[in-house]
Design goal:
The chain is built from 2 helices and 8 strands, in the order βββαβββαββ. By secondary structure, it is an alpha/beta fold. The chain has a single domain, classed as D-tyrosyl-trna(Tyr) Deacylase, Chain: A. Helix 1 crosses helix 2. It is globular and about 45 Å long.
């Protein structure tokens, strides 16, 4: 699985002019299931993100996790993270998991963040045309893959 994690002061996702998920301080996680990914990949990614120390402590050092600061997570599916841009000018997305499997792993990952990692978790809608608003804090943006 691939994820782009952004430390945010706030973030929201809108579908058809309706906000379907929003958080205050925490993490915006754009996530993509790749061909061959399993629940084990999602488990590993969720655990790593939950423990990722990218929030400032009292000394101003990045030493706290989203859990440590009482933050939340907004999980949004983003199949374009699978983009292959090595040739031509049009990205290819064939490395992404097929839609049914991608949606299953996306839901599994978001549930894992909420139920196993015990983080307040909002989510986008898989396959929808979504609009994201975010205030990146730092800016801090981290790329992860399993």
């Amino acid at each position: 699985m691939k994820a782009l994690i952004q430390r945010v002061s706030e973030a929201s996702v809108t579908v058809d002019s309706n906000i379907i998920g929003e958080i205050g301080p925490g993490l915006l996680v754009l996530v993509c299931a790749m061909q061959g990914d399993t629940e084990a990949n999602a488990d590993k990614l969720a655990a790593k993100i939950a423990k990722l120390r990218i929030f400032q402590d009292d000394a101003g050092k990045m030493n706290c996790s989203v859990r440590d600061i009482g933050g939340a997570v907004l999980v949004v599916s983003q199949f374009t993270l699978a983009a292959d841009t090595r040739s031509g000018n049009r990205p290819g997305f064939s490395a992404a998991a097929p839609p049914v499997e991608g949606e299953r792993l996306y839901d599994y990952f978001a549930d894992r963040m909420a139920k196993v990692e015990n983080l307040p978790t909002e989510r986008g809608r898989f396959g929808a045309d979504m609009k994201l608003r975010l205030l990146n804090d730092g800016p801090v943006t981290i790329w992860m893959e399993t």
